[in-house]
Design a protein that fits this description.
Length: about 500
């Protein structure tokens, strides 16, 4: 094969995505010439009907699929989430590249901050359902009403509709925005939009609260089922892990009926410790769904047995330390501008009265996000309890200098540490060293008890998925087990006891 005809939709994003695939192919097969073909689909032509009301599930893909069947193109590149969950015979999705970030992005006008009635542009029933529950608590004020307004068109059109109207915000796929921001054509032709974007607030929405559409962030590479030579060639560039995850997400959605009319998000994350599944939304029958689960890798599975007594018996009883503020921290934090601030837990800013709104704010988890929001702080994103190593803080437009707020004895390698408090030990719970099972909220707590009572090494130890696990595992390799959260561990402990 000397010439490969790649077809996509006509939008700039679709062409950028086709170029990403072409670059990957050229990187593997230098002798192949790439020819690009574009086609306007029925979904591109009808820009008035909301997507979830359109009769054909493949409004962005079927017309392109027909070009493969007619031999007018060899390879179609789609945003995989646009494909119907039930695929027709004659063509097949042969592979995909490594998935981009699957989260949703909220763009919000600065002048709309504090408004009581918020109007957000999105045509996704899934986004409307899940964000109506999350955003009222995630914003730095409590709006009285959030209205969702249908919007159609490519990313540039939707951004223009936001900035040229009285609407307050727009929700789009983060992967789409990042791909456009990496496009020289977008940066050159949409400089006005880019300036308006940079003057706006943004928020990267956590998958635990707002799971994405199945396959969001992934590119589907579709070919004719008869094109066996191309099938073999493309398998050399594919990412099997992404392919399997996307298939699994789509199969889950299919159980609820499938399609863009569904109010259900499904996201699967492969972490270094296991697989996390988030499902949230509402079925067509009106049943509310909110499920999160963690399946550890085989080496991290905890065979809970002989549970005699455990610590802590509640979150409130877990406190090993009091947190004493460090007086000079406020001056350091208030002096940070045009940077990023990573907040490891909600109480690290209890005595910080001034944080510049020029900074990006990232949190370790959603609980910390909500604490900061209740203090009037705009949060840009969260590591969603995965730890900053697996889910690091991000800037949207340029490289960002990041600072981490934590305690005096915290160990930090990647971010610049600012200590806002120090740990002072409480009176320890009686016989704390005699428990058979432990869940550690922080590595500091484990280290403190372990130094006093080395015998606890033989007990069963557990903690969350982030940095606490990594640090405890360095001290007692292979003897600590990851859980999604304390509640998950406690439920399993109680069942095993």
């Amino acid at each position: 094969m000397k010439t490969l005809r790649i077809i996509s939709r006509k939008s700039l994003l679709a062409q950028v995505q086709a170029q990403i695939v072409a670059d990957k192919i050229k990187g593997e097969f230098e002798d192949i010439q790439i020819e690009f073909v574009t086609k306007e689909t029925s979904g591109d032509i009808d820009l008035t009907t909301p997507l979830h009301q359109m009769p054909d599930a493949g409004v962005f893909t079927n017309d392109i699929r027909q070009e493969l069947l007619s031999n007018n193109a060899d390879l179609a590149v789609h945003s995989w989430k646009d494909l119907p969950v039930e695929l027709l015979e004659g063509t097949e999705i042969i592979t995909t590249l490594k998935r981009a970030d699957s989260r949703d992005l909220l763009i919000f006008k600065n002048k709309s901050l504090g408004k009581q009635t918020i109007k957000l542009l999105t045509s996704s029933p899934r986004r409307k359902e899940n964000l109506s529950n999350f955003l009222p608590n995630a914003l730095p004020w409590i709006p009285s009403d959030i209205e969702f307004v249908d919007v159609r068109g490519n990313i540039q059109t939707r951004l223009s509709k936001l900035f040229e109207s009285e609407k307050d915000g727009l929700v789009i796929a983060f992967a789409a925005m990042k791909r456009l921001l990496a496009s020289s054509k977008f940066l050159k032709e949409e400089s006005n939009l880019l300036e308006l974007l940079k003057e706006s607030k943004w928020m990267l929405l956590p998958l635990s609260e707002n799971p994405a559409a199945p396959a969001q962030g992934a590119l589907a590479l579709e070919i004719s089922s008869k094109n066996h030579d191309l099938k073999n060639l493309l398998k050399n560039i594919g990412d099997e892990e992404t392919f399997n995850l996307v298939i699994k997400e789509r199969e889950i959605l299919k159980k609820y009926g499938g399609g863009c009319h569904q109010k259900i998000g499904v996201s699967i994350i492969n972490s270094t410790k296991g697989q996390i599944l988030h499902i949230k939304g509402e079925t067509e029958e009106g049943e509310k769904i909110s499920k999160s689960s963690f399946e550890p890798l085989e080496s991290y599975k905890n065979n809970l047995k002989e549970v005699k007594n455990y610590f802590p018996t509640s979150k409130e009883s877990s406190q090993i330390f009091n947190r004493v503020p460090i007086s000079e921290a406020e001056q350091k934090v208030s002096g940070i501008k045009n940077s990023g601030i990573y907040v490891s837990r909600g109480n690290v800013i209890e005595n910080i009265n001034s944080i510049s709104n020029t900074n990006l704010i990232w949190t370790s988890g959603v609980e910390t996000w909500l604490k900061l929001a209740s203090k009037g702080i705009w949060v840009n994103g969260t590591s969603d309890s995965l730890g900053e190593n697996e889910s690091p803080p991000l800037g949207l437009y340029e490289d960002t200098k990041w600072y981490k707020l934590s305690h005096l004895d915290a160990h930090e390698e990647k971010l610049e540490l600012i200590s806002t408090y120090k740990l002072v030990s409480n009176e320890l719970p009686k016989d704390i060293e005699k428990n058979s099972h432990y869940y550690w909220m922080s590595s500091s707590s484990f280290k403190f008890i372990f130094e006093k009572f080395p015998s606890i090494e033989s007990a069963n130890h557990s903690c969350g998925l982030g940095k606490t696990f990594d640090e405890i595992n360095q001290l007692i390799p292979g003897k600590v087990y990851p859980y999604q959260n304390y509640k998950d561990w406690l439920d399993k402990i109680k069942r095993a006891k």
